[in-house]
Design a protein that fits this description.
Jelly Rolls, three-stranded antiparallel sheet, 10 strands, alpha+beta
Length: 230
C-alpha cells in the first residue's frame, strides 16, 4: 500500500466522486472539500488486503480505481466473496455505525486499486452536523439489507442452474454481451452454493445449448432471453 500525495489527480477524482454520492448532496461544497481533504488516497497492488475480519473498524473507503472484494470466512475455514465493490462505490460505511467497531468481513483488492480512506469519526461528525446525511445513511443501510435478503432468497428458493443463470444475466445487464466473471471458479461456486464440479457441468450445458460461448472468465452471451428463463 502506498499513500498518494494530496491534490493529486486521484484526489481530484475522489472529490468529484464524493460530490456525486446521493447521501452527500446536501453538504455545502466547501465543507465537502474539507471532508475529503482530511482523508488519504491509497494505492494498492493486486491481492493486497485492506483490512481483516475481526479487526477494529476505524476507516471506511471510496473506491476510485480498480475493485475490492469483501470476504467472509466460513466455519469450514474457506473465504467466500460477499460483495465486489467498484469505482464510485463505498466500502464499509455502515460498519462505522455498528455497536461493536470491528469489520465483519475481510477485504482484498483485485488488480491495481486506488482508494480514498476516511476515519470513522469524520462520518459521525458529518451526520451530527447534517441530519439529512444521517437519514440518507439509514437509506444506504436499508438498501444493503434488502440486497442481502434478496441474495439469501436467491440461494434458498432456486436450484443451482437457476442461481447460475440469474448471476450471469445480472452480469449481462451490467457488462453487455461480452462478460468477464469477476470471481474465480472456486469463488463463484462458493458464492452460489454449487459444488465446483457441478458448476463446470452447468457451464458446459449452457455452451451446448448455445446460450453461452467462451471459457474460464471470459464469456459471450448468445441468447440472453434463454439465459433469463433458465
Amino acid at each position: 500500500m502506498t499513500i498518494i500525495k494530496t491534490y493529486s489527480p486521484e484526489f481530484r477524482r475522489a472529490k468529484e466522486m464524493f460530490k456525486g454520492l446521493s447521501f452527500l448532496k446536501t453538504v455545502p461544497a466547501d465543507q465537502l472539500d474539507s471532508f475529503v481533504i482530511a482523508g488519504n488516497i491509497l494505492a494498492y497492488e493486486n491481492d493486497e488486503r485492506i483490512f481483516y475480519q475481526g479487526e477494529r473498524a476505524e476507516y471506511w473507503y471510496l473506491v476510485i480505481d480498480g475493485r475490492v472484494d469483501t470476504l467472509r470466512e466460513g466455519a469450514d475455514g474457506e473465504f467466500r466473496v460477499v460483495q465486489s465493490i467498484k469505482p464510485g462505490q463505498l466500502l464499509a460505511p455502515i460498519v462505522m455505525f455498528m455497536p461493536e467497531p470491528t469489520y465483519p468481513v475481510s477485504s482484498r483488492v483485485v488488480g491495481l486499486t486506488t482508494l480514498c480512506r476516511l476515519k470513522r469519526d469524520q462520518l459521525h461528525a458529518l451526520c451530527h452536523a447534517h441530519s439529512e446525511v444521517a437519514v440518507a445513511m439509514l437509506e444506504v443501510a436499508g438498501i444493503a439489507l434488502s440486497n442481502r435478503i434478496n441474495e439469501v432468497e436467491n440461494l434458498s428458493s432456486r436450484n443451482g442452474p437457476q442461481r447460475l443463470s440469474t448471476y450471469l444475466h445480472t452480469l449481462y445487464q451490467e457488462q453487455g454481451a461480452e462478460i468477464r466473471l469477476p470471481l474465480s471458479h472456486r469463488e463463484l461456486s462458493a458464492k452460489l452454493g454449487i459444488r465446483p464440479e457441478t458448476l463446470s457441468r452447468l457451464f458446459r450445458s449452457l455452451r451446448e445449448q448455445k446460450v453461452l460461448e467462451g471459457k474460464r472468465l471470459n464469456w459471450l452471451v448468445l441468447d440472453p432471453k434463454r439465459l433469463e428463463c433458465q
